[in-house]
């Protein structure tokens, strides 16, 4: 039994420590291919919105300020029952941008909006930029994304997302590690595990419709690009920004929803379990699958320790609790304890997301985080 516990601990260390550390180290001296003359592709920007009056104007202004040729950009905004002033704000940019409004009179959710708008785009070599209303682009964001598609084999391009409002050190640390890991995956394997749903681009021909009630559409879209032999590029020097401050409850519910969607994707792409020798399967298992299974590993480990070493566990828990209390009294920073707490909260969110997945997900519509 102790051998099983040690093996499960090893699996947790693989996905959270050994795997990212190894591939980041191996990719350190890898460089992306240099680009020659870059063709300006047609860029279709899809922005699903639901009551985004506080941010949609700033978003469109950032696109209008782009140094990419305006005649090559077409914006598709899916208005998912907007009852605020979003529509009127969008109208103010009609003379500066080529905007097509897709108005929905009942809530259908972001994945369905993506499906509906994408199927109207015919040209298979056009680029689709999926982006949220609260993501602000830099002047050269679109140009950098387009340049990455200069290689005809590239199917998906992700960018570096920064939340400049977040004061959650643990969340920011996790996101920084994720960005570095995805960059390393792209350099080593020509793919990365899951685009940032807030802003990423694909070549139209690789798009596959998102299944009904899928919660994590960006991961589904990403994986289908790779399964069609499209390559992935992560642009670490292409930074986009979000201003989002969430409460602990909002962040926990977001992680729980994402976890439920991850288990949908796990089940959908379960055939990859049997081909671990392929890059797409290897990265899927080590980067994602083991993380999604970590709460179950921890339950087994803790149960074993409680049954066999009850007194030791009780004493250690008491000592650690007292240490945390004393550190707080004396104002000593204890980031390690905060990181551990954040890790455990993430595991609880994954566990509850799994339960939601088992019960059945009836809708992929949710309320956006208040801006």
Task: Summarize the helix and strand pattern as letters.
Answer: HEHEHEHEEHEHEHEHHHH
How many DSSP-defined strands?
A: 8
- Return the structural class: alpha/beta
Major pleated sheet? 8 strands, mixed
**Helical stretch tally:** 11
Overall body shape: globular
Q: In angstroms, what separates the terminal alpha carbons? A: 49 Å
Mean pLDDT: 89
Oligomer: single chain
How large, in whole angstroms, is the Cα Rg? 22 Å
* Largest sheet, spatial ordering of strands: 3-2-1-4-7-6-8-5
Helix content: 40-55%
Strand fraction: 5-15%
> Spans of 5+ residues with little confidence (pLDDT < 50)?
none
Describe, in plain words, how this protein is organized in 3D:
By secondary structure, the protein is of the alpha/beta class. It is built from eleven helices and eight strands. The protein has helices at residues 2-26, 56-64, 86-91, 110-118, 141-148, 169-189, 217-227, 248-268, 279-308, 310-329, 335-359; strands at 43-49, 73-80, 99-104, 127-131, 135-136, 154-163, 199-203, 231-242. The chain has an eight-stranded mixed β-sheet. Helix 1 crosses helix 6, helix 8 crosses helix 11 and helix 9 (279-308) packs across helix 11. The longest helix has 30 residues, at 279-308. The chain is globular and about 70 Å long. The termini are far apart. 36% of the residues are buried.
């Amino acid at each position: 039994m102790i051998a099983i516990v040690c093996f499960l601990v090893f699996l947790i260390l693989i996905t959270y420590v050994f795997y990212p550390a190894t591939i980041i180290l191996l990719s350190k001296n890898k460089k992306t291919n240099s680009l020659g003359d870059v063709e300006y592709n047609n860029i279709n920007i899809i922005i699903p919105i639901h009551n985004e009056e506080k941010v949609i104007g700033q978003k469109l202004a950032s696109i209008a300020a782009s140094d990419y040729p305006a005649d090559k950009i077409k914006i598709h905004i899916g208005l998912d029952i907007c009852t605020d002033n979003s529509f009127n704000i969008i109208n103010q940019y009609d003379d500066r941008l080529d905007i097509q409004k897709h108005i929905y009179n009942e809530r259908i959710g972001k994945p369905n909006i993506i499906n509906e708008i994408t199927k109207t785009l015919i040209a298979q070599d056009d680029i689709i930029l999926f982006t949220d209303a609260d993501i602000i682009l830099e002047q050269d964001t679109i140009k950098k994304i387009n340049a990455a598609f200069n290689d005809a084999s590239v199917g998906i391009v992700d960018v570096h997302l920064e939340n400049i409002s977040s004061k959650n050190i643990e969340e920011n640390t996790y996101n920084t590690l994720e960005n570095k890991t995805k960059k390393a995956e792209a350099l080593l394997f020509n793919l990365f595990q899951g685009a940032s749903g807030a802003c990423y681009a694909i070549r139209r021909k690789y798009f596959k419709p998102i299944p009904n009630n899928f919660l994590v559409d960006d991961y589904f879209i990403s994986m289908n690009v790779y399964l069609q032999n499209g390559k992935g590029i992560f642009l670490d020097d292409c930074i986009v920004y979000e201003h989002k401050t969430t409460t602990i409850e909002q962040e926990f519910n977001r992680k729980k929803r994402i976890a439920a969607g991850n288990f949908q994707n796990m089940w959908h792409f379960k055939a990859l379990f049997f081909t671990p020798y392929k890059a797409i399967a290897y990265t899927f298992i080590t980067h994602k699958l083991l993380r999604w299974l970590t709460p179950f590993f921890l339950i087994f480990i803790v149960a074993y320790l409680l049954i066999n070493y009850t007194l030791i566990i009780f004493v250690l828990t008491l000592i650690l609790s007292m240490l945390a209390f004393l550190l707080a009294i004396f104002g000593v920073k204890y980031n390690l304890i905060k990181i551990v707490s954040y890790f455990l909260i993430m595991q609880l969110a994954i566990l509850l997301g799994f339960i939601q997945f088992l019960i059945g997900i009836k809708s992929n519509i949710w309320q956006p985080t208040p801006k």
